[in-house]
């Protein structure tokens, strides 16, 4: 019995970890015994490690709690990598336990053995390599301490993310009995990582002073987990002060933004509007922002003050104009800042300018969407408008997320997720499966066909729940490459970008017991959407068929809209 592994599992449950995703293998047998025998941890078996890691990511993202991932040695561990990179950039806590063989066997033609020490390089917050314990030299304290430290780091209030523990095992791997009583060292505590980074008074005073001297203020919110405290802080600040809030579609601050269509406005207004309405003060918080138009504008604009507020150590300066980094948890910063303004400003000229633009944008979009032409853009609006509330929305890294960013989400109460840490198309469905598994609400994934077929193993497990809805925009290739300039410039190389194919999702739906629907025009879509989000005993998949060429014509027309 590899007893120290039971210590690892016990420390995980002691510190609140509830879920472990286990991929099959033999070298990892001790980990399988230790986790499956722990009554406080729910274990799930998933065979494809790439998919398993994204499922774990989706579970941790939704539950805001670390999830354990276990695999055997060799390439199994490498297949975790894409999701680990995504978790690193999206600050999602994962504990990765990879089984290994004794180090002296490396490069000696022993099967299923590769360089696993520090396998995930800079994409983990910490990496440990446990010694190869035998029955007589088990070091329980070390296993306990390393696990506690790993959990503290992965779930730190300052910066969450993945942590790797590589664990070499000697044979025998299979015990005579599964019974084992674990006695943890008394008093083990999570290390002092849990304290939130609070804003310093001097920083708040400085921001207030600059704030008072600036007429045009914008708060920009990038990708973030849903957070009511932040929402309340932002809403309160906007009630009191003349400040415009641009919130990315994945910021989960849609409801507190006072200019939801900023992406559309910036890409459809004239230069003069942007010149006269650039901010003197920009405060940016959160992860990546999708809008390319905003990025281009902010990179060129002459913004006097850009305060970047973040608790993480790696300083982010996307537009190359940060004038001051403020180390703080963004929600604490916003709530403390709003307390600095005790009166309510009645005149809000800057908000008014952007709200007027928002109204013009809304009208322009609405009239455009009245078109009869069957296209992804219009279908997207119809699907978004029918999403059940409250509910979860996952947007794959296909054109859909760009459409959604331009159109905005009209409804309140939708939590919006996307793998924007590294923007891969390789695990969007698995992430949604994991997320739906830990949520009671209807969880809808909107995906393009390449992203969907790439990750169809997402359904190859027992976690797919009846609250999952998948909507595939099937244009038989990577349609996004026909929407941007460049990839389709030369007909000879077009196919290497678009990667055309002729597949549909019907057989996958049948294989995995999903209810299957297909629509090829608005009348079918309207009828289907009437019941698609209703509760059901099985998950549902809706496939919408489009043509890349027709879509790109509609999108080009849409891009010509002007607001002024
Ligand atoms: C793992 C990975 N490989 C390649 C890419 C590059 N890429 C970005 S979008 C895309 C095409 C997506 O096609 P699809 O999901 O069908 O959506 P559509 O563009 O048609 O909306 C590709 C290949 C990526 N983001 N991630």
Please describe what this structure looks like:
With 564 residues, the chain is of the alpha/beta class. Helix content is 38%, strand content 16%. The chain contains 22 helices and 17 strands. Strands 2-1-3-4-6-5 form a six-stranded parallel beta sheet, sandwiched between helices. Helix 21 (522-532) links the parallel strand 16 (515-519) and strand 17. Helix 8 runs parallel beside helix 12. The N and C termini lie far apart (73 Å). The model has no long low-confidence stretch (mean pLDDT 94). Residues 397-400, 423-426, 448-451, 473, 475, 478-480 line the site of thiamine diphosphate (TPP).
Write the topology of this structure.
Blueprint: H1 3-14, E1 19-22, H2 29-36, E2 42-45, H3 49-63, E3 67-71, H4 75-78, H5 81-90, E4 94-100, E5 126-129, H6 140-154, E6 162-168, H7 201-213, E7 217-221, H8 228-240, E8 244-247, H9 262-268, H10 271-276, E9 281-285, H11 292-300, E10 305-310, E11 324-327, H12 330-339, H13 349-369, H14 376-386, E12 391-395, H15 399-407, E13 414-417, H16 428-437, E14 443-448, H17 449-454, E15 468-474, H18 480-483, H19 494-498, H20 506-511, E16 515-519, H21 522-532, E17 540-545, H22 548-559
Parallel strand pairs: 1-2, 1-3, 3-4, 4-6, 5-6, 7-8, 7-9, 9-10, 10-11, 12-13, 12-14, 14-15, 15-17, 16-17
Bound molecules: thiamine diphosphate (TPP).
């Amino acid at each position: 019995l590899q007893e120290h592994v039971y210590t690892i599992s016990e420390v995980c449950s002691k510190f609140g970890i509830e879920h472990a995703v286990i991929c099959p293998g033999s070298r990892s047998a001790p980990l399988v015994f230790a986790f499956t025998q722990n009554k406080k941890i729910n274990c799930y078996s998933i065979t494809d490690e790439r998919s398993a890691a994204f499922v774990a990511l989706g579970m941790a993202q939704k539950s805001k709690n670390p999830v354990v991932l276990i695999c055997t040695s060799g390439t199994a561990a490498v297949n975790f990598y894409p999701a680990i990179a995504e978790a690193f950039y999206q600050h999602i806590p994962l504990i990765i336990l990879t089984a290994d063989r004794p180090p002296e066997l490396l490069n000696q033609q022993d099967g299923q053995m590769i360089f696993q020490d520090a396998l995930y390089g800079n994409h983990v917050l910490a990496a440990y390599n446990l010694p190869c314990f035998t029955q007589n030299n088990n070091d329980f304290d070390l296993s306990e301490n390393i696990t506690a430290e790993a959990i503290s780091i992965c779930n730190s209030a300052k910066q969450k993310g993945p942590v790797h523990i590589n664990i070499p095992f000697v044979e025998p791997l299979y015990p005579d009995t599964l019974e084992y009583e674990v006695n943890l060292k008394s008093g083990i505590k999570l290390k002092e990582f849990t304290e939130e980074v609070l804003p310093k008074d001097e920083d708040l005073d400085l921001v207030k002073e600059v704030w008072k001297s600036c007429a045009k203020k914008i708060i920009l919110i990038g990708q973030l987990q849903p957070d009511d405290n932040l929402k309340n802080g932002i809403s309160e600040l906007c009630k009191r002060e003349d400040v415009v809030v641009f919130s990315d579609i994945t910021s989960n601050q849609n409801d507190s933004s006072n200019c939801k269509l900023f992406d559309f406005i910036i890409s459809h207004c004239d230069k003069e509007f942007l010149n006269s309405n650039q901010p003197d003060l920009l405060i940016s918080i959160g992860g990546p922002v999708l809008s390319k138009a905003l990025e281009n504008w902010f990179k060129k604009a002459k913004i006097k003050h850009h305060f970047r507020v973040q608790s993480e150590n790696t300083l982010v300066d996307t537009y190359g104009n940060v004038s001051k980094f403020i180390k703080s948890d963004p929600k604490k910063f916003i709530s403390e800042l709003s307390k600095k303004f005790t009166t309510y400003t009645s005149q809000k000229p800057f908000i008014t300018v952007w709200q007027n633009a928002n109204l013009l944008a809304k009208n322009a979009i609405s009239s455009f969407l009245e078109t009869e032409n069957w296209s992804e853009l219009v279908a997207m609006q119809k699907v978004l408008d029918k999403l059940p509330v409250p509910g979860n929305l996952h947007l794959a890294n296909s054109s859909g997320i760009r459409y959604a960013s331009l159109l905005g989400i009209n409804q309140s109460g939708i939590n919006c997720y996307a793998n924007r840490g590294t923007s891969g198309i390789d695990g969007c469905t698995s992430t949604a499966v994991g997320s739906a598994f830990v949520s009671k609400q209807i969880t809808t994934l909107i995906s393009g066909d390449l992203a969907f077929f790439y990750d169809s193993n997402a359904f190859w497990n027992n976690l797919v729940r009846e609250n999952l809805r998948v909507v595939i925009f099937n244009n038989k290739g990577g349609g996004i490459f026909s929407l941007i300039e460049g990839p389709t410039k030369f007909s000879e190389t077009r196919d290497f970008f678009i990667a055309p194919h002729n597949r549909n999702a019907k057989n996958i739906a049948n294989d995995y017991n999903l209810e299957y629907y297909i629509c090829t025009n608005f009348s079918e879509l309207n009828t289907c959407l009437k019941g698609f989000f209703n509760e059901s005993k099985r998950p549902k998949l809706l496939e919408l068929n489009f043509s890349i060429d027709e879509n790109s014509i509609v999108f080009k027309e849409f891009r010509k809209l002007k607001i002024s």
